[in-house]
């Protein structure tokens, strides 16, 4: 089982009258949620457009990409292993509901329509909702994580092309099966797991404390830990979020990193390690780090739709001493570690965790960490401009981890989106952590006496 993120999107096209009048429809693409889960995640995408156009267009996109026709079934001989069964054609991908009161269409669209019990059908469901006034929402739900953010961009692009009658790009030259074959071959090399055994040797689980009492066993699958804790207080746990500007000048930071042969990912990972060290009182800290997986040596992997990402354990050891000595050393060591981890990035996080924590007495921690960090580019189409067709409105991440920090590197600034369960901490605690992360970035920038712009 790999830890995997998922996305939820919402598109809004204009109403039927806008299409009939010949005006150009627009789509608001809202990334509602991206999950970082290790098992059985649920994914939802909500969108709006015209059923008469959307259903055949969506069907063409489904038939075009094997990942959207793939069943994920547990192996009978090894239930922990998931088998990928690709259908020649989709059989129940789209459902259309019409004549819905416009005042309640958003509420109805928000209700789950994908059964979590039936594990034998497609791992996703696409539903189109049309109101009595012509407003249309489209929702994609998934039982498993089968797409990454790059895949979402490609699917949105293909959906737009299909709506416009433009032929879809040829995917025959980059079959998803080539990625599956590579991963199966890669997993046979024992050196990958041996690396993680050595890298995480003698590590103590790193658990960030929240506002409320925290379970020492760490997070359970699908937020069960939060559901259990919240049940005692009589409410259903919800994901909350806090936004924090980490830096106002991305260009200057890039120049700062280039001068020192570092990366922005490197800087933000060390900054989060500083926060964890300050909060836990320990010099040896660990957290989850999201990797895209698209640097695998698989032909045309950048054009594939599917799931390639993983969450890796990122361990950073801090030392006492002057910042200009300690942080420079930590930054360089962390930079080297980035490359080493990337060479072994496709290992199962749950298997790595079992190897590191296995054999412990009953009641011992079952997780290495309860926070996860991702550093990413904004969700945009990399092949052609789509600003007039799609617009990202919101990102909310639902996760098994107590807190996920998504740092987005924009052209002019770096923003952090801290997502957390309200059964773990409150908004004030999240704001404090966001501020601490911003201060840690600033601390790194001046560690050698050369701040931004120097």
UniProtKB/TrEMBL annotation:
> SUPFAM superfamilies in the record, alphabetically?
CoA-dependent acyltransferases
The UniProt entry, under InterPro entries, shows: CAT-like_dom_sf (IPR023213), Condensation_dom (IPR001242)
Span of domain Condensation = 60-420
Which GO molecular function terms does the record list?
Answer: acyltransferase activity
Q: Which Gene3D superfamilies does this UniProt record tie to the protein?
A: Chloramphenicol acetyltransferase-like domain, Nonribosomal peptide synthetase, condensation domain
Q: Which UniProt keywords apply?
A: Acyltransferase, Transferase
**Is Translocase set as a keyword in this record?**
no
Q: Which family does it belong to?
A: Belongs to the NRP synthetase family.
Protein name (database record): CoA-dependent acyltransferase
Taxonomic lineage from the root: Eukaryota, Fungi, Dikarya, Ascomycota, Pezizomycotina
């Amino acid at each position: 089982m790999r830890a995997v993120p998922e996305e939820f999107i919402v598109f809004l096209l204009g109403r039927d009258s806008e299409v009939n009048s010949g005006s150009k429809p627009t789509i608001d693409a809202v990334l509602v949620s991206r999950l970082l889960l290790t098992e059985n995640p649920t994914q939802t995408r909500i969108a709006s457009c015209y059923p008469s156009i959307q259903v055949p267009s969506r069907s063409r996109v489904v038939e075009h990409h094997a990942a959207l026709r793939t069943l994920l079934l547990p192996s009978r001989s090894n239930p922990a292993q998931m088998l990928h069964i690709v259908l020649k054609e989709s059989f129940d991908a789209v459902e259309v509901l019409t004549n819905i009161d416009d005042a309640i269409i958003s509420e109805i669209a928000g209700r789950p329509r994908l059964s979590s019990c039936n594990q034998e059908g497609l791992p996703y469901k696409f539903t189109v909702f049309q109101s009595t006034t012509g407003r249309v929402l489209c929702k994609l739900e998934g039982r498993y994580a089968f797409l990454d953010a790059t895949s979402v961009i490609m699917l949105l692009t293909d959906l737009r092309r299909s709506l416009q009658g433009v032929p879809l790009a040829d995917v025959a030259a980059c079959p998803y099966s080539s990625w599956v074959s590579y991963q199966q071959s890669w997993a046979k090399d024992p050196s990958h797991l041996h690396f993680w055994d050595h890298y995480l040797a003698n590590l103590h689980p790193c658990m960030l404390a929240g506002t409320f009492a925290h379970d020492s066993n760490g997070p359970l699958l699908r937020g069960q830990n939060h559901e259990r804790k919240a049940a005692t207080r009589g409410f259903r746990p919800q994901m909350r979020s806090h936004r924090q500007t980490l830096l106002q000048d991305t260009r200057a930071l890039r120049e700062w990193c280039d001068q020192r042969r570092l990366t922005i990912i490197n800087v933000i990972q060390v900054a989060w390690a500083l926060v964890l060290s300050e909060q836990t009182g320990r010099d040896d800290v660990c957290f989850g780090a999201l990797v895209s997986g698209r640097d695998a040596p698989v032909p045309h992997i950048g054009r594939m739709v599917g799931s390639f990402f993983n969450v890796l354990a990122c361990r950073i050891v801090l030392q006492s001493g002057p910042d200009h000595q300690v942080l420079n050393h930590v930054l360089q060591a962390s930079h080297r570690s980035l490359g080493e981890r990337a060479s072994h990035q496709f290992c199962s996080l749950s298997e790595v965790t079992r190897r590191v924590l296995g054999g412990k007495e009953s009641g011992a921690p079952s997780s290495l960490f309860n926070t996860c960090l991702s550093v990413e580019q904004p969700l945009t189409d990399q092949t052609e401009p789509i600003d007039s067709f799609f617009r990202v409105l919101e990102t909310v991440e639902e996760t098994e981890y107590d807190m996920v920090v998504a740092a987005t590197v924009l052209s002019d600034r770096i923003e952090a989106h801290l997502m957390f369960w309200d059964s773990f901490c409150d908004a004030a605690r999240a704001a404090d952590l966001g501020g601490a992360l911003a201060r840690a970035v600033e601390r790194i920038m001046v560690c050698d006496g050369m701040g931004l712009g120097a």
